[in-house]
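Sat 14:20. Reprocessing the chain from the morning session after the first attempt stalled halfway. Input below, unchanged.
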Amino acid sequence: MIRQFYTFLFFYCFFLVSQITAQEVIVKKRNVETGEFYSNSRNYKKFKNKSNAKEKYTNCIKYNFLPFFIGEFPMGYEIRINPFITLEAGLGLTTNNHMDQLVFGANNFYSNPNGYLRNTISLSHNATIKIFPEGNSYNNGLYVGIDYKNRPYSKILPQENFSQKATKLFIDIGLIAGYHIRSSDRILIDLYAGISQRYITWDTVSIFQTIDPNTGDLVAEAQINQLEYPTLGVLLGFKIGYLF
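Finished this time. Tokens:
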């Protein structure tokens, strides 16, 4: 046991010495007239220039690819307040929530065997506050954030004199954890996952056929009952952004 301890101590000391001797000693000099520090080290200048280059952008335009599977196409804008905090907001378009349809496919809101209901485009919006504990907001770094999403999905039931609209609205307020990857000078990749408190307001549709007393034609009518309920939601994102 003692021999193993001394062997370990020997290799540890050898490793420590090699690390110390391998480090470059950087001597910084101060200009008396200007008060600025400078160094003749080539590596130091290279690191400083690279660091400055990574901090010169404060704005980022992003597109999130994962919401495609739930029928949303969101664009976002992020601004760096400081190295520790960024704010992001965005708008998107929604069509049909394909993932939700897998669960509630039997409902008339989705099934609609006679094709009465038609998908329509709605406007979604979102906002996020991100905190980077290590102060590397637009570099490679971890973050935690508070995320808000508002995603309405609407259907239209065309009528002769008017159109009936039914909507299923998802509102998420949740916590996310993510990672920024600075893949190049202007390209930023944003990956995140989280959990939310989700509030759903759903215009459930019951469609039935009646005979128009004036024309004798068979027409479709809809009865809408609104449901409101909370549930848990999962938040996922894969964004690619352009810095400027």
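The chain has three helices and eleven strands.
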